[in-house]
Design brief:
Number of helices: 12
Keywords: Membrane, Transmembrane, Transmembrane helix
Organism: Streptomyces chromofuscus
Shape: globular
Protein name: Glycerophosphoryl diester phosphodiesterase membrane domain-containing protein
Structural class: mainly alpha
Radius of gyration: 28 Å
Order of helices and strands: HHHHHHHHHHHH
Pfam families: DUF7847
């Protein structure tokens, strides 16, 4: 089956599991991450192109620059200005070359790499952690009308549904009094836990649907922002609409996988508990759930780039999951760390907005702030509406950041493995891009 993905604007050959740091059809030898000689004298001359290579004819030429690590070899001249990674910048980097035409290390004619092309919110090269976070924030700041408009619309609709469910349905069925009663029977505790779980699950499901819808629309906005091309809310919706149902299917499948793995770990302990070994069964249940929870987390990070792959490459659900697994392979900790950092930052910023609204809502309803802190307050429509306004504002912040980081991580992994920067540069109209070797990532 043809596994060639398409990019909403640019397209690129798939990685096919190619690991970073290896040369071959999946990555040119002169791209960052490939093993290269550290001394100019050790670098081989230009090689004939590999007849089996699948790269385009516009791939970067063999690298002509490496950091000098000592005196030049006898008879070797430094490259003339304008070759390799760029000529000498205006004003030079240091002292002029010596009388014999040699170079004085970094103070001579050797120039640092030129800045990468940046038609949009990110430079077209492998990205550092700060550049990914900055790209997500820059997208929200540069295209704030579209980004905040989408986030506001989705957050308002989602919160209205949650408030109506809490006000008319969930509060009538949910009773947590038994959880605070030391004399409650096992049946009462079970019913109270079931009601609380039902309420939390319904709210989580509604919030998840809103998150999926926002992600679908903001993926299109972020992908255009990388090219420096604005997009309206209507254009984002028209582009994302054919893929929204598949995106819901993808999220549902990932939830089923995570829940199935987590429950599978608890089954042995539950069976032991039912057999009569209460303490041993409880311990086994906790241990099994922890172990399978780690496995579920590993799977979720492995498939975390499936959403942008599905939206931008027009892939099926299974193909999108496969693409995510290939892109994350060998970079699991990096992907996990960046997404965790983005989630923490977004939720801290959102909490700064949500917490004051929650205390204000508690002060204006029920038994006041004291009742809210004790968990004994009777909160009605006033509390739900005021706290809901805070949740809407918080969602306007979290939606763009988390969706933007996920999309930029996907783009970064494809730049590292598949030279997607060449396709992005052509789509953005960058002239003569690829005539030199892109500079390496400034960080991890």
């Amino acid at each position: 089956m043809n596994d060639t993905p398409g990019w909403a604007s640019p397209g690129s050959a798939p990685s096919n599991g190619q690991e970073p740091g290896t040369s071959g059809p999946g990555e040119p030898a002169d791209r960052p991450g490939a093993a290269q000689p550290s001394h100019p004298a050790d670098r081989p001359g230009p090689q004939a192109p590999d007849p089996g290579s699948k790269w385009s004819k516009e791939q970067p030429p063999p690298a002509q620059w490496s950091a000098p690590s000592g005196p030049p070899s006898p008879g070797q001249e430094p490259p003339p200005p304008g070759t390799g990674w760029g000529g000498r910048p205006p004003g030079g980097y240091g002292n002029p070359p010596g009388p014999g035409g040699g170079h004085g290390g970094w103070g001579g004619q050797w120039a640092g790499p030129p800045p990468a092309a940046k038609p949009g919110v990110i430079p077209l090269r492998p990205l550092g952690v700060g550049e990914i976070l900055d790209g997500a924030v820059s997208t929200m700041r540069t295209y704030w009308r579209t980004v905040l408009g989408i986030a506001l619309a989705v957050a308002v609709v989602t919160e209205i549904i949650v408030i109506l469910l809490q006000g008319f349905v969930l509060d009538e069925q949910t009773s947590a009094e038994a959880l605070e009663d030391p004399n409650a029977t096992l049946g009462e505790l079970t019913r109270a836990l079931g009601d609380a779980l039902l309420s939390s699950s319904v709210i989580f499901l509604i919030s998840l649907i809103g998150t999926v819808a926002a992600t679908a629309l903001l993926t299109t906005v972020t992908s255009r922002a990388v090219l420096g091309k604005p997009v309206t809310t209507g254009e984002a919706w028209r582009d994302a609409r054919p893929r929204v149902l598949k995106l819901f299917g993808l999220i549902f499948l990932l939830l089923v996988i995570a829940l199935g793995v987590a429950v599978a770990g608890a089954v042995p302990g539950i069976l032991v508990t039912l057999a009569g070994a209460g303490a041993a069964g409880a311990a086994l249940t906790v241990l099994g759930s922890m172990c399978t929870g780690v496995v579920a987390l590993w799977l979720m990070v492995r498939f975390s780039l499936a959403s942008p792959a599905l939206m931008l490459e027009k892939q099926s659900i299974v193909k999108a999951m496969s693409r995510s697994a290939k892109l994350v392979r060998g970079a699991w900790w990096r992907v996990f760390g960046i997404q965790l950092l983005a989630t923490i930052i977004a939720n801290i910023v959102a909490a700064i907005v949500v917490i004051p609204f929650t205390f204000l809502a508690a002060a204006l309803s029920g038994d006041g702030v004291g009742g809210f802190l004790d968990g004994t307050g009777d909160f009605g429509w006033t509390f739900l509406i005021i706290s809901g306004i805070g949740s809407v504002i918080g969602s306007m912040i979290t939606f763009p950041i988390t969706a933007g980081v996920t999309v930029l991580l996907y783009i970064d992994q494809r730049i590292r493995r598949e030279a997607l920067d060449l396709e992005l540069a052509r789509a953005a109209g960058v002239q003569d891009y690829g005539s030199g070797t892109p500079d390496p990532s400034p960080g991890s």
